[in-house]
Amino acid sequence: MNIRKIAAITGMILIVGASAFAAQKKIDNVQIITGGAGGGWEVIGAAIASKANEHFEGFPVTAIPGPGSVANPMIVSSGETAFGIGYPNFLVAARDGLFPYDKAADNLATIASMPATVLHIFVDPAKAKEATFEAVLDKKVPIHLALPPQGAGSHMIFHNVVAAYGLKEIEDMKAWGADFYYANVSGINEAWRNRMVDGGVSTLNIPGTAVEEALSSRAGVVLPIGEGLVAKLVEAGFSPYTIPAGTYSGQKNDVATVGLPMILFTRKDVDEDTVYEITKTIYENAEFLKTVHSSFKTFDPNAMHLGTGIDLHPGAVRFYKEKGLIK
């Protein structure tokens, strides 16, 4: 090949490269606040940031660990970060200034609904004589449960469960001899493994590694929530969820429980084009996300505009309208 041809080809490559670079948008650096370091939310947030950066000059989108579902809405609302991951029930509570928040954050908007974080209540087989957790409450079983600590999103979710049943506080179960051990996920598993408790509560994406570790270390049963209680929780913003048989060691049957979709959210004043591109990123990378985290195995991008709790951001609305998902 002569020098002229090589020069022409090289010039063409440079032109194409320059054109592709010019197509990228320039935005200010933004962060997605997620959950605890090394957890599923941080992994998912980092994956979204990585793919979103393909639409922008440089690498302006980063994911950072954060306190999680309860605190994230107020962090984003205050302007500390532009994006966050949370749950719809907490976003509704934050918008309206309801418990556990002492002021309203009415400047929030949502982008996408992603796979559900699922409530797991696993118990010793001796306590599983009551076929559902609702039956445990009905019959006032004096069960000793390991729970996430106060302030954790998972603790608030369990509080919502007992509140839907009709109790004011979790501690009200102590009236009939129930008791509680508060710890993080590893502490819950340690207490379970050492037979300090009769059961444990975790909210995790399916399959939950911590639940599998617990049930591998000691025989246990994942309890269904109970039909009546599920219905009340759905009214409170949860979604019904079935954990398929065989998901965990010794689990022979499907388990009917509830879940809360992970919600990527932002503020109403965040740039519409930026939100549009991030919405597009999630939609177009569904297959990639399935390789990042097992919870995306059943992810349907055509449903990611549903169940977000509060209103969608205009940038997300624009994308979903282009796809014909909303009118």
Word description of this protein:
It is a single chain. The protein is of the alpha/beta class and 327 residues long. It folds into two domains: 27-115 and 262-322, Periplasmic binding protein-like II (D-Maltodextrin-Binding Protein, domain 2, 3-Layer(aba) Sandwich); 117-260, D-Maltodextrin-Binding Protein, domain 2 (3-Layer(aba) Sandwich). The protein is 38% helix and 19% strand. It is built from twelve helices and ten strands. It has helices spanning 3-23, 40-52, 72-78, 88-96, 133-138, 153-165, 185-193, 209-217, 227-235, 272-284, 286-292, 314-322; strands at residues 30-33, 61-64, 83-86, 108-123, 144-147, 179-182, 199-205, 221-222, 239-243, 255-267. Strands 1, 2, 3, 4, 5, 6, 7, 8, 9 and 10 form a ten-stranded mixed sheet that branches. Helix 2 links the parallel strand 1 (30-33) and strand 2. Helix 2 packs across helix 10 (272-284), helix 7 (185-193) runs parallel beside helix 8 (209-217) and helix 10 (272-284) crosses helix 12.
